[in-house]
Amino acid sequence: MNMLLRFECKKLLNRKFTVITIFALMLCVMALSFLIISENTNYNADGSRISGMKAIRVNKSSQAISEGKLTKQKLLEAFHQYQKVMNKPSNYEGTTDDLKDEVYVTELKPYDGVLSLLRRNYSPAGRYDYYILSSVSDEMIDQFYEIRHAKIQELVNMDYSYGNYSQTEKEFILNKDSKIKTPFSYDYADGWGDILQRGFFTVFLLIGLAVCVIIAPIFAYEYQTGADAVVLSTRFGRKRIIQAKILAGFLVSSGIFFLATALFMIITFTAYGIQGWNASFQILSFTSFYSLTILQVFLCGLLLNYLIVIAVMSITMLLSSVCNTSFSTVIISALWVFVPLFIPSSKDSKVFNYIINLLPAKALDTYTVFSVYDVYSFGKTVISLPIVILLSSAFLVLIALPLAHRSFSRHQVA
Amino acid sequence: MELILDRLTKQFKNKIAVDRFSYTMKAGVYGLLGANGAGKTTLMRMICTVLSPTDGDILFDGHSINVLNERYCDILGYLPQDFGYYPDFSARDFMLYMASLKGIKNRAAHKRTDELLHLVGLSDVATQKIRSFSGGMKQRLGVAQAVLNGPKILILDEPTAGLDPKERIRFRNLISDLAKDKIVLLSTHIVSDIECIADQIIMMKKGKLILSGTTADLTEQANGLAWNLIVNPNELEQYEARYCISNLHHTSMGVELRIVSEEKPAQNAQPITANIEDLFLFHFSDELGQTSGKTSGGIQ
């Protein structure tokens, strides 16, 4: 089996197209990582713009003031600072409403993260009003967490064109939300935010596509080269070879996944550091109802996306076992991965949206998956989106691989 | 050792490729002859388990191969008509891969690979990629992989197709060397290949077995079918339209024809010793686009 497995891996990896695909994937991951890093911006006290690593360093040090538990006292401190800056006429450029650059950078920017959370909390549900803080009082700040929970209640009770939440769904969401530990743990987490919001989805979508391309010939290549006749007439040609192929596909897909993920993480963590790992996920996604830290969401996202990539691999294997060429396999599996990306959410059908949510192009978006209120009801049981993605991916793997096995073992050379 | 094909039938939609084919093979070399589309490849694919019969059964030593399953594949060697290989593999890697598919242990696989690559004359190019091989080299590699497991049944579908005469002779000798104590079933269009190495010849037409026997038996049957005749060049077209002409040679005396016909084609036609090719043409000339040797009536 070892020798068979080694050769199956070699068959997958030796192809010129595989080498090009892996190289292109790594190049894209690197380019994306550097792009994300380079788009970090901040300003010097003199108002000059800085970006990239320099901006990250400045952002990190300036936000240090808000680190720790986001207590009401800390929220008030940020709010009072805001009021102090905004209420001082000399802080403005001439007669305009624009703050002086140096005032913004030195006095307001360090509180930006916390102030943003305050704006999110006091803006009307589903909106973000930048100027809302001018109408907020100390009493409201004092009620920060209660108001947040009420906002989530409001969100689940709203009327939606595609259908409203059922009572059990509302209870599920609110119950989960009430379990979130307060006060939130706050820290500099721009890096984690960039990784989860901007990098994760693209990196894993690219990995999914690379897996489609690399795994596509796993069975189809036998038909394409005509080697199927020789292979199927051998002792292990209808059983053990399939196990070896599946295992080889799994190893190669996993290798690609971990290689690309590691490259992305090495570059981004080197730039941002791991600071903020223990902060509440709500500082990135304020209305998320999951009681998780940023690191937990990151790890859950990794696990989910790995499983999705394995599901993509399994479907590609199934297609490869029924299609006559690698090309047709790549086209069909890539369509399956990519097309949902361009399908907008339905305004009428909740079921449609819930199905689309489970397709790779949507399910790979960890940040959104842990931010939206899409929950699945099966009778009286309500299951959250990440769990449904996990189960549906596992289900796809468990269905597709035996079908691929069956299809190849029953293949007729005619 | 006995391989029985029992009323083996394969139907593709409306076409019956193999029609109730029954035959018993014991150790020896069997040459399968038939025109294109006669069902040779389909028959061989069924014997090699890569195509399921619509009806009938294949029995090895009294046991259905469906029951024997992996045990049957274990004693089988197959070189398909279009030998599929992995272009990016070296000959050695390909042999080792096939060895692992045939369940040969690692050390034995290496030993056997070296032996066979030497036997088929590919030792020097063992580490080269197969994509750089000539047609003959690929065919030799195909035979080497087919005999890796020391099969009791060796199926070779058109193994000499596309080879130059030198390669063909080399190939025939190789097959003869490997055929000892095996059932070797070999199909080809090239009648002389079969005449040289086959102990038994099987003729297939439109999916059916039409004739079988030793080369001597069949040559005996073919006697009286071959004629030699010298005609004027302006009569040639007439003869071509009416008879199956197996050979044509322009000489100073006219055109010398070798005609395959049940009846004497002309008064001055001389009977000559027939061979398997004549018999083949006699049965398949209609499918080969020639006038049938069974046409009656001579030219005066």
What does this structure look like?
The complex is a heterodimer of chains A (414) and B (300). Chain A is mostly helical. Chain A folds into 2 domains: 2-38 and 187-409, no CATH class; 44-162, no CATH class. Chain A is 64% helix and 4% strand. In chain A, the strands form 3 sheets. A two-stranded antiparallel sheet of chain A has the order 1-2. A two-stranded antiparallel ribbon of chain A has the order 3-4. Chain A has a two-stranded antiparallel sheet with strand order 5-6. In chain A, strand 5 and strand 6 form a beta hairpin. Chain A is elongated and about 85 Å long. The mean pLDDT of chain A is 92. In chain B, helix 4 (91-101) crosses helix 5 (106-119). By secondary structure, chain B is an alpha/beta fold. Chain B contains 11 helices and 14 strands. Chain B has helices at 40-47, 65-68, 70-73, 91-101, 106-119, 135-146, 165-178, 191-197, 215-222, 236-242, 276-284, and strands spanning 3-12, 15-25, 28-33, 55-60, 63-64, 76-79, 153-157, 183-187, 200-205, 208-213, 226-231, 244-251, 254-260, 270-271. In chain B, strand 1 and strand 2 (15-25) form a beta hairpin. Chain B is 33% helix and 28% strand. Chain B folds into 3 domains: 1-75 and 151-212, 3-Layer(aba) Sandwich (Rossmann fold); 89-145; 220-288, no CATH class. The interface between A and B is medium-sized, with 28 and 37 residues.
